[in-house]
Each structure stands twice: as C-alpha cells, then as structure tokens.
Amino acid sequence: MGLRRADIRLNHPFIQNLIAGMMLFCLPGIYLALTGLGAGGGKPSSQTVAANVNAILYGIFFVTGWFGGTIMNLIGPNYTMLLGSVGYSLYTGGLWYFDRSGNSWFAYLGGGVEGVSAALLWASAGAIAYSYAEEKDKALYMTIQWICCEGGSTIAALVALGINMNNSGGKDAGAPTPVYVVFVVIQVLAMVMSLFLLVRPAKIVRSDGTNIAVFQTPTLKKELIGVLEMIKDYRFMMLLPAIFVAEMALALQSSLNGYFFNLRTRSLNNVAFNFIQIPASIGMTFILDNPRFGLRKTRALIGISVMSAITLGICSAEAAWLTQHHIDRNKAGPSTDWTDSAFAGAFVIYVIYGSVYSIYQIATQYVICSLTNQPERLARYAGVFRGVTALGMMFSFIIDGNGGTYITQLSFQFACYFVGIVFLYIVAIFYVTNTNYFQEENVIVPHRVEQDAKLEGMAADADAERGHPKEDAVATVSLQKATESE
User: Fold this and answer.
1) Which domain holds residue 127?
2) What is the DSSP letter of 43?
3) Does residue 365 belong to any structural domain of this protein?
4) Cα–Cα distance between 245 and 327 in angstroms, integer?
5) Is 444 inside any structural domain?
6) What confidence category does residue 176 fall into, taking pLDDT thresholds of 50, 70 and 90?
7) What is the dihedral of CA 434, 306, 61, 127, to 10 degrees?
C-alpha cells in the first residue's frame, strides 16, 4: 500500500497501526528478549523461578484475555494500552531484583500484574491490526506490528549481546545491571506514547475519506452479550486448539537456551531468534496478501501448508537432536559456547523455531480476521487469541518449571501443533470466504471495493452504495453523542 502526504495523520489506519507497533517494540519486544535469554536473563539456577513466574503470568493472562477486547471497546485503545504498559516494567524489575537478591516475591508480583497488563495491551494492538486494515492488507498490518515487536526484541538482544560479548566464562553468570536498566527505561516510554498518540476507532479515517465502521455507544451489557455471542460462534471456537499452541515454542526454546548455552551464546541465539522472525513474517505476508496466489481462501490454505511443513519438520528435527545428544535437564548444563563444536546444530534448530514462532501466529490470525470485519467483534477475538495462547504457554512453563523432560515437553508441543493445524485447515476450507464486505451492516466498505464490486458484478449498485448511508450514520451517531453530553 502507498501513503500520500495527506495520509500522514494520527487518525489514519496505517499510522495508528504503526504507533501500536512501536508500543509493542517497547513492551513485549523487551519482554521477549529477556525471556529468550533463558532464566529471565538471570543465572541458569534462576530458571525454575523464571518458569514459575511465567506460569503465573500466563495463567492470569488467559483469564484476562477473554475480557481484554471488552475493556478496549469500552474505554478505547489509548487508556487500555496505558494500563497494558504497567506490568511489563514491573516484570523486568522483579526478575532483576530476584537475580540480585535471591528474593522471589517481587518477581511473582511483577508476573501477576503483567498477566493483566499483557492481555489489555495485546487486545488493543490486535484490534487495531485486525479491524483498521482493509481485507487486502490484513496480513500486512499484522506483520508491521510483528516487525516492530521483534525489532524491539532484536535491538534489546543486541544490547545484551554487546554487554555480554566477552563473558565466555561461568555458567552462573546472569545478565548485568545495565541490561535491566535499559530495558525498564524503554518500557516506561511506552506509557507516554499510549496517552498522546492513540485515538478511538470511531475517529479513524481511511485514505478515501471513509470511516471503518459505524460505532454505537458501548455499554458493559452490550459487551458481555458480545462475549457470549463469541463463545457461541463455533467457527472461532474451532480455532482454539490452533491458538492454544501458537506461542508454545518460546517456552521450550528459552528453557533449552538457558540450559545448554553460556550467557554470551544465549545472547547471540536470542538475537538470531528474534531477527529471523522479520523476514519470516514478511514471507508469510507475501503469500497471504498476494492476489497472484489466488483468492483469499486459497491464499490461506497455501500459507497454512507452508507453515505446517516448517513447524512439524523442525519439531521432528529437535526430537532427533535431543535424543542424539542425550539432553537431560536433571544434570548440569554444558554451558556450550559458540566456539564449541556442539553449537552449530542447536543454533540452527533454535533459529528455525524463531521463524515458526512468527509464521504460525500470522497464519492463524489471518484465518481469524477472515471471519469478520466488525471492529468490536475483532477486538474480542484479539483478546481471546492472546488469552488462549497464554494458556498454552502456561502449560508449557508448568512442565518446564516442574522438571518435566525436554522430550516430554516437545512431545506435548508437537501433538498440540498437529491438532491445531488440523482445525486451521477445517476452518479455512469450510468457513473462510473470499470477502466479508457487503455482509455486515455496520462495516463501511472502502470506495475502491465498491467500485470493483460494481465492475465485476459481485454486488448490485444498491448493495455497493450501502457504504455511503453508513458514512452518514457515522455523523448521525457523533451528533447524538454530542447531544447526550450537553
């Protein structure tokens, strides 16, 4: 998509999506870099506490995620993302405090607060990517946010690598204080961004002058009814197994990273894991948004197939590697350095998992976005996507924190991937349509789509013109709100 000078304004969909991406750069981007270092960036002996903190975080995240979209619809993305910013700095500070003092209470507190914050943040960011984009740009908007998030992770990981570069020694080394300080400062900056740069969805105006939808005044009752309707939507419920496993690779790989490598090599692996997600997500977007690969359903099926081959293939390769090297977490880790012969194979597996982490989620979210264009419904979907993803992470971190073997953890992950992929195929084949435009009364159809529909005979003139009365309805609703406030 091309931006004109007139499109460089706060209420343009692309600009709002980019701002949301910068929020992800500062918040989960830093979190993922810290988690990817293994043991929460601390000593390998901190791995159990780090895993248990993450289990608490993701358990709370799961519950809050079901209502994250509701809160976003009620108070708007700016205040929701502000609340979503608080927990990340507490999480980082808690792990920092534990690594230095040995007292775990602050780490557990930070994990619990971040469980609530993360659900609010991701529900808002997901709602922006899902609903602000036109159908032709759905994967692009998700990938822009993903690149921002992983760009933050990569830069944070590079900072850690630079600091730890010369630390090839003791396996008991943790990330030094400057790493934590830099991370916390960046996370705090996101709070300011959320207050001054984000606007409500009703104020979003596309390049052609249209709004994205007609918004009614939200109420708690309407939102709770919306949650119940979502639960009754069997198409979305069928995707829960696929959503459950979406981030599970992070838990296993970060644990292996902390166990098998020394600190500077963990830092290098972390850079590669995060960076590879950028070209991988761009590649998946090239498939999903590219009309040369066919209509939307066909593109979704191609994307799922590519993702499935890479995902199941790397799981099988890692199982062979674990067996060949007799990896036993009950024994002391080897603290492998990048100069050791054992480094190469483990590094390749770790990096490929980075690509799986991104392309699996983008393919899954693309299928979700294909079910509707209604902004309120997509906000709820976004919250539940992250909430159920968090549940899968919680189970994986519980296995990790309670001494389950790596092969057990991998087997559970493989089974979840397989089942999830099967349901992705079912929903894509039977329920993904080539467009949802002209099917949902409150969604305003872009002018370009209206004209294409007329020319191609996909919609009668009366249907294609429905977008214009909807634009009038936007003004009517705004006038009603102004009258009520007087």
Assistant:
1) 11-208+234-436
2) -
3) yes
4) 23
5) no
6) low
7) -30
3-class SS shares of the chain: helix, strand, coil, % to 5? 75, 0, 20
pLDDT at 212 over 70: yes
Which whole-number Å values give the CA distances from 8 to 1, 14, 146, 289, in the listed order?
Answer: 13, 9, 21, 23
Residue 27 maps to which CATH number? 1.20.1250.20
Name 211's bridge partners. Answer: 205
- Residues 438-471 have pLDDT tens digits of 999 899 999 888 887 777 665 555 455 554 445 5
399 has pLDDT over 60 = yes
CB 59 within 8 A of CB 78: no
Q: What is the DSSP letter of 213?
A: B
Q: At what angle do helices 343-369 and 263-275 cross, to 10 degrees?
A: 30
Phi, psi dihedral angles at 198 (to 5 degrees): -100, 145
Name the 3-class secondary structure at 12: coil
Confirm if 399 and 304 have CB atoms less than 8 A apart. Answer: no
Q: Which residue has the tokens 């619809």?
A: 73
295 occurs within a structural domain? yes
DSSP H helices, 165-247, are 177-197, 220-232, 234-237, 240-244
Query: Looking at the 3D structure of the chain, how many domains does it have?
Result: 1
Residues 6+ apart with CB under 8 A from 73: 218, 223, 226, 376, 379, 380
Q: Which of 111-115, 327-331, 477-481 has the lowest mean pLDDT?
A: 477-481
Q: Which residue in the block uniquely carries the two structure tokens 């593109």?
A: 299
Please tell me the distance from the alpha carbon of residue 322 to that of residue 333, in angstroms, as a whole number.
Answer: 13
454 lies in a domain?
no
Phi and psi dihedrals of 8, rounded to 5?
Answer: -80, 80
Helices (H), 13-46: 13-26, 28-36
How long is the chain?
486
**Please, which pLDDT band fits residue 477 given cuts at 50, 70 and 90?**
very low
Residue 336, SS3 per DSSP: strand
Decide if 251 contacts 54 (C-beta within 8 A): yes
CA distances 133 to 164, 294, 301, 304, 447, Å, are 40, 20, 21, 21, 14
For 132-158, write each residue's pLDDT tens digit.
Answer: 999 999 999 999 999 999 888 888 778
Q: Minimum mean pLDDT among 22-36, 311-325, 382-396, 421-435: which range?
A: 22-36
DSSP code of residue 216:
P
* The pair of three-digit structure tokens given for residue 194, joined into one six-digit string: 């959320």
